[in-house]
Structures are given as structure tokens and as C-alpha cells.
TrEMBL record:
Keywords: Cell membrane, Membrane, Transmembrane, Transmembrane helix. The keyword Lyase does not apply. It comes from the Bacteria. It comes from Paenibacillus sedimenti. Its main location: membrane. One of its GO terms (molecular function) is amino acid transmembrane transporter activity. The lineage of its organism: Bacteria, Bacillati, Bacillota, Bacilli, Bacillales. This is LysE family translocator. Signal peptide: none annotated. The chain crosses the membrane at residues 6-27, 39-67, 73-90, 110-134, 146-170, 182-203. InterPro entries: LeuE-type (IPR001123).
Length: 305
């Protein structure tokens, strides 16, 4: 129990420590609103870290897959929320006395950073990668060990935010209202930039999806264990995880696969698997009932639209 707890504390601390938009908000709120607002801002992020640590620690693949499937939506929501917070912070006037800060409540400080962290798809990916790389958690871990890991993640993350808010709080006493206004301007601008970067990243996602799909397709069609079979479905069966990743891309995969099917001058195994993936994504909305080749499926699909 003690070892998983200590590992969780180190992991939570190390994931929380890099300064990003949450760190900027924590620093700004500590300076302009006081240590408690700053600490609760960090605690919101720590709670989200613990939630994702729980998913990774207990090996909850169903929830993990759902969150990864929705990563584009989560990134969009998080990016827009960052823009909102950044602009609001930039335009706000600081109150020298934290008790006089308008519209700023302790719950709001906590909830805003919780939402920002929970809508960041990189958070769950960070925990999955860290847990897998360190051999922590997963379905093979016992409940006590997994629980200790999750508790450690929360404690480690909270310790970082406590230390940050305490250290920054010391500087607050030396700043006048003019300096506090500049803190708002600079931190607001930085958070807004993070929001813009998150939204611009959505444009890059389409290219990334194409690369991921091509990598999975290549793995499926070059599988040596399936080459003895004349059944294309065997290639999928032997590489189910790769195929499922393609299908989980949903509508984005259909757009990419139909475009590639149309551009392809071949009509072989790869094209069949591409058409099969489209049909599986569409499910009951698939207008093509009978088809033998990928090109045949595409022709009938386009004729039905």
C-alpha cells in the first residue's frame, strides 16, 4: 500500500508541475485574489487528475475509450473555455483586498480549473502512458493498490498547488494595484493564447486521424499470420484492436476513408477493409446491403446519397 501511494504522489506531483494554463490561472488568482483562491484553483486540477488517475489505475477501458473517442469535442470545449477565461481575466480590474473581488467565488475558482483539466484529452493520455510505462495500475492491479495510487495522485498534485500558491502568495504583499492590473493583463493574454492553440490544434486533428488510420490499415493488411487465409475478415480478426481504433474515429473516419477509396486505383484487401470499416461505423445507417469489393461498396454508397 505504501509503495503505490508514494508512486502516485510522485506521479501526481510531476504531472501537475509543468506550468500551463492551469498554472497561470493559479498564479494569477493567488496574486490578485489570495492564497485560498489560488490553492482551490489548483485543487480543481488535482481533482480532475485524480479522476483520470482512477480510470487509468483501475483499467477502466470502456470509459477510457469513450473519452478518447470524444477528444475532439473535449478539446473544442476546453479551448473555448480557455478563451473565455483569458479574455475575462485580461479585462478584469484587480481588487487589492481579495474579499472585495467581484464575481470571484471559491467554488468558481475550483470548478473552472476542474473543467479545464477534465476537458484536456492530453491528461488521460498522460496518465495512461505513465501508468503503462511504470507498470502501475490496470486491470491486473489489486483494488487496494489501485486505490492507493489514485489517492497518491491527488495528494501529489495537491501538494504542488499548495506549494505554488504559498510561494506566490508571499509576493502578493509587495504588489500595488497597478502591478496587479498588469498581472491580469499578462496572465489573461497567456491563457487566451493557450485557448487559441487548443482550437488551432483541432485543425491538425484531421491530419493526425489520417495518419493513425493509415498506420492501423498498414498493420492489418501486412499481418503475416493472416496471409494464408483468403478471407479478408481474418485480417480484421487477427488485428481487432487496430481495426477497432479505425472504427472509433467515427464520422471523421468515414470522411477520410471514402476520400481515400475514391482516390485509390486499386480494389484489393485494403479497399475492402476500408469499406468494411465505413459500414461498421454507419451500422443501421449503412445504405449498402450487399457488396463484394471496396469500390463496389463506395459506388453504391455514393449512389444512395
Amino acid at each position: 500500500m505504501l509503495i503505490p501511494l508514494l508512486k502516485g504522489i510522485l506521479l501526481g506531483f510531476s504531472i501537475a508541475a509543468p506550468v500551463g494554463p492551469i498554472g497561470i490561472l493559479c498564479i494569477r488568482r493567488t496574486v490578485t485574489l489570495g492564497r485560498l483562491h489560488g490553492f482551490l484553483s489548483g485543487l480543481g486540477a488535482a481533482s480532475a487528475d485524480a479522476f483520470y488517475g482512477f480510470i487509468a489505475g483501475f483499467g477502466l477501458t470502456l470509459i477510457t475509450n469513450f473519452l478518447l473517442d470524444q477528444r475532439t469535442l473535449l478539446q473544442a470545449v476546453g479551448g473555448l473555455f480557455l478563451l473565455y477565461l483569458g479574455i475575462q481575466t485580461y479585462r478584469s480590474d484587480p481588487a487589492k483586498d481579495p474579499a472585495k473581488a467581484k464575481g470571484e467565488t471559491l467554488f468558481r475558482s475550483y470548478a473552472s480549473t476542474f473543467m479545464l483539466t477534465i476537458t484536456n484529452p492530453l491528461t488521460i493520455m498522460s496518465f495512461l502512458g505513465a501508468f503503462a510505462g511504470l507498470g502501475l495500475g490496470g486491470s491486473q492491479a489489486g483494488i487496494p493498490s489501485a486505490a492507493a495510487l489514485v489517492a497518491g495522485v491527488f495528494i501529489g498534485s495537491a501538494l504542488w498547488w499548495l506549494a505554488l500558491s504559498l510561494i506566490v502568495g508571499i509576493l502578493r504583499e509587495r504588489l500595488n494595484v497597478g502591478a496587479l492590473k498588469w498581472v491580469n493583463r499578462v496572465s489573461g493574454a497567456i491563457v487566451t493564447i493557450f485557448g487559441v492553440i487548443a482550437l488551432l490544434g483541432l485543425l491538425q486533428n484531421d491530419q493526425n486521424i489520417g495518419k493513425e488510420i493509415e498506420a492501423d490499415l498498414h498493420k492489418i493488411i501486412t499481418d503475416k499470420s493472416s496471409m494464408a487465409s483468403s478471407n479478408p475478415g481474418q485480417y480484421i480478426a487477427n488485428n481487432q484492436e487496430s481495426y477497432d481504433r479505425i472504427v472509433r474515429h467515427g464520422d471523421a473516419a468515414i470522411v477520410y476513408l471514402t476520400k481515400e477509396l475514391k482516390a485509390s486505383n486499386r480494389n484489393g484487401l485494403k479497399e475492402w477493409i476500408m469499406a468494411k470499416a465505413c459500414a461498421d461505423i454507419l451500422q443501421e445507417n449503412n445504405p449498402v446491403e450487399e457488396w463484394e469489393t471496396g469500390k463496389q461498396w463506395l459506388t453504391k454508397y455514393e449512389q444512395s446519397n
